[in-house]
Structures are given as structure tokens and as C-alpha cells.
Amino acid sequence: MDVAAGNPYQKVMQANQSEQLILGHLDYVRHVLGRTVANLPDGADLENLEAAGILGLVEAAAQFDPAREVTFTTFSYPRIRGAILDELRRNCPLTRTMLKRWELIRNAYAQLEAPVSPEDLAGATDLKADEVLECLQAIRLTNPDSWHEELNPGARTAGDESPPEAAVEQQDELQMLADLIERLPDQERMVLTLYHLEELRLKEIGEVLSLSESRISRVLAAAELRLKEMVRRRVDDGIGQIQDRRIHSHDKHTADRTGSTAQPHTPPRRGQGSRRSGAGRRYRS
Q: For residues 48 and 275, which has the higher predicted lDDT (pLDDT)?
């Protein structure tokens, strides 16, 4: 039985705690809003987005349990951010032209071999590289997780049950990301680090690097795309190695049973044979 449900004093204490959390974190809502939807296009209502974030804050304050030993900012962040993004999607500020460009880019991305660069996407869609980055920037604004979801649709969610070895796997993934980030161009690595690790807003990063907020947003979009493609290539290579080992093991087992030497069959790796080099390469045949 919930003690608070039958204890009026406990109810009052929880109400006071929730009120204090809300009042003490209104600035945090603005911080999350600034990081989530920088460079708002025409038609986006900042006040409505902030109000949606406050509703997310209220929900988080009502559900927060200090006994879980999780800070309130950590607990409330996904709820505030989710409420802001839901409101933004309900009132999508993207123009028809931008949505048509996004459809072209998505189709090209599905056809091109990893790693895909903005120049590759530009060549495959007859768009300019700056137009591709502008579109990625806009999509990142309205749906920041879109590229993550398309790149790894089977990714674990926060509520998934994780086996004991999942922690080791996650640590390996983090190490891989750290290694790949070090291979990014200096400017992209700096912007990515300041945004995701130091949690600076785009405006603050622009002040550090003496660049406009719009330019920082495009650099960030390019860096995230480049990093995702590096991860995709690494994953593809890993899958290919696993397939090779399985085929080799099967051929060896067959040879042992028949007493003959079986010729191993190795399927072509992804990107072999049909891939064309250069920034202007188009779809696979």
C-alpha cells in the first residue's frame, strides 16, 4: 500500500517538494530548450515550446523519488526534452521545400555505401553541400534522433532489460566512439565535444570559437553525420568478419566429414564491386 496515499501529512510534504523542484528548475527548462532547439526557423513559437518544457518539468517533479539516488536534473531531462520535441513536431516549422529535400536525402542515404559524406549526398540528390547540411540541421532540430534511429533501429532503450554482459558491450561501444571522435577533423571534434560532453549551447560554442551560431549548427550536423558513418563502417566490418569466421568454420566442418578440402565461399562484402568512388557518386546499380 502506498503510505503517501493514506497519509495527509505525507501528501503535503510531497506537494511542497514538487513545488520547490519546479520553481528551482525553471531556468533548467530554458537550458534544455536552448540545447534542443537552437536556430529556430520562422514559424516556431518559442513561448509554446518553453511552456511544453515546463509541463514536462511538472510531470517529472510529480514522479520524482529521491530514494532512487538519481539527481532531479538527470531524471527530468528526458521528460522536459521529450515534451519540447512533441510540441515541436505537432507544429512542424519545416517548409515543403525542406521536407522534399529530406526525402531526397533519406533515399540517397539508403542507397549509398558507408561512409556517406555531405558531398556524397549532394552528388546523389543534385543539391549543394550547403543545402544538404542546412537540411540535416533542420531535421536535427525537429527530430534530433532521426539519424540515430535509421542507423541503428535495434538500439536498446532506457527501459530494456540488460543482461550482465550488456555493461561490457556498452563500455566497448563507448571506447569505440571515443576512438572515432579522435579521428574527426579538429573543428568538428571540438564542436562535438563542447556540445555533447561539456553541454554548451550552440551560441556559447560560437563565442568560444568565434563563429556564428548558424555555422556551429552546420558543423555539428556534419560532425554527427561523419561520426555515424564511421560507426556504420566499423559495424559493417565487424559483421563481415563474423560472417567470414562462420563460413570458414562451416567449410572446415564439411571437409572433416567428407574427408576432402572444401573450397570456401566468401560472399562479397558490402560496397565491393558496385561501389564508385568520388564525392559525386550516385546510387548503387
A: 48
